[in-house]
Fold this protein.
Amino acid sequence: MKIHILTLFPGMFNGPFSESIIKRAIDRGLVEIAIHNIRDYTSDRHHVVDDYPYGGGQGMVLKPEPLFEAVESIGGQGGVCGESEKGESQIPVILLTPQGRLFDQQAAQELAKYEEIILVCGHYEGVDERVGEHLVTDEISIGDYVLSGGELAAMVVVDALVRQLPGALGSEASVVEDSHWRGLLEYPQYTRPQAFRGWVVPEVLLSGNHAAIARWRREQSLLRTLKRRPDLLERAELTDEERRRLNEHRYADSS
Ligand code: ADE
């Protein structure tokens, strides 16, 4: 997979992309990350990337020209994601903005299927509206709060995508057991020592009975999701029996 990132602050990516799973995925050739400085795509002498907002107001707005120039020179076409009029598949061009749709595991799984994507980091007070209308195919927010720019959000998106690429983690099973993978939170994990300050590891995990361990983990996953993120249960894949048992818990908790 190839991920292009358009940013005014390329240096911000040095640390996060040269450590841990992302670094290993790059070293193994599973992903190529190309950082493009938006300023390099200006055509004026002073390399101006922003300007005052029409109509007045606080702050500066990112100009459209360098962003269009950058995306088009990489090979993105803008418009609606999917197939172009000529039937060629288009590269998703994603603007990171607090106004975008909320990023979640499902969005991460969808994006990880593409061979190539372009992430555009917004900055200053905003981005010229014509970028959203005519250049990007999607707008993504990583949460309902405002960051100083799209860079940290782009790092979050890259991390969530890269860990799903086959071979990026030590074992394929790890992704499948991640929280949110099947719409539930992950079960509790323990390691040695078996007793720490008097707190002991649940007996079943020491039993060697794989079926019983799998049942316990599933149950814990369900209960934890019910307690912490009941909203996730609406969309989770549950058996009728599991839904019935969860309803009993709900009822018991509320009485
Ligand atoms: N840029 C600023 N805030 C953001 C957010 N919450 N998500 C994505 N991009 C952003």
In short: The pocket of adenine is lined by residues 96-98, 122, 141-143, 145-147, 149-150, 153 (CB under 6 Å). The longest strand covers residues 93-102. The first helix runs from residue 20 to 27. The CA atoms of residues 16 and 155 lie 8 Å apart.
